[in-house]
Amino acid sequence: MSETKPRPFPRRRAFALFFLIVAAALAYAAALRMFDLTEIPIERRFAKDPDAAPRLKIYIEPISADPARESIQFRVHVAPGQGMLGKRPNAADRDLYVIVRSGDAVAQQVFRADEPMTFLTVDADLNEGSIARYPFDRYVIDLRVQALEGVDATPENEHPIALDITVWEGLLGYKIRSSLAPGGNAGDIRLRFELRRVDAHVFFALATYGAMIVLACSSLLISFLVFLGYRKPEAAPLGALAALVFALPALRNALPLAPPLGVWADILVFLWAELAAVLGLALFVVAWAREKPFG
């Protein structure tokens, strides 16, 4: 009776697997170094004449962005500053007229003397960008803030109030950079915002689309081997290939701040990955149907 010899240890495959793991770890470390995943938002202050008095304090914070509609919403808080404190908390000692413009959108509010000040909400346009470039889409927003004394101010009879503007550069899922735009004066400050997705979301989106490519190639490899007769058409791979057809859309919808279907990344990756999964399933079914029945 012949004894079965033990199979030798596959050293080549072990070394290949080891180098593959090391290469993946190095690639991951390089990606973490390239993408800043721990950046913390900050505040920036803008004032054309920091020593002017009286002055009005303005605090601007982005509250939502919708690249699909090419719009972003800001909340503008107004508070009396140096030399214009009223008799009541958060109230000015004179009538004020505050105007915030962005393109064709205008938000304006009249604040009466010694009455509490509220906030304004401004809907601005996202310019010079398109969501079709997801996740590398970038946008520019222009904002103009004016403050005038009196409620009946006109271009011929303006009494500008110096502004002290603070911008919060934080918005969930996005990175914002603000800067002072050319033009204006102490009572007419123009700001420019640059908006893009945070590095963590870009990294996750690239990893997700990469996973789609790997899954699609795996589906084609399994189906090709079965269709060509190198592997038997068993039930287990058939279930996995069928599940993959429905798993890819779920993976696509799990993208951070998922864009509408049809961006460039969908055309280049998701569409072909889904077609590859369907083709792999069809080839496997054809091979299974050609298999001779038992008996």
From TrEMBL:
Record keywords, A-Z: Membrane, Transmembrane, Transmembrane helix
Presence of keyword Membrane: yes
Source organism superkingdom: Bacteria
Transmembrane segments: 202-228, 235-255, 267-289
Protein name in UniProt: DUF4436 domain-containing protein
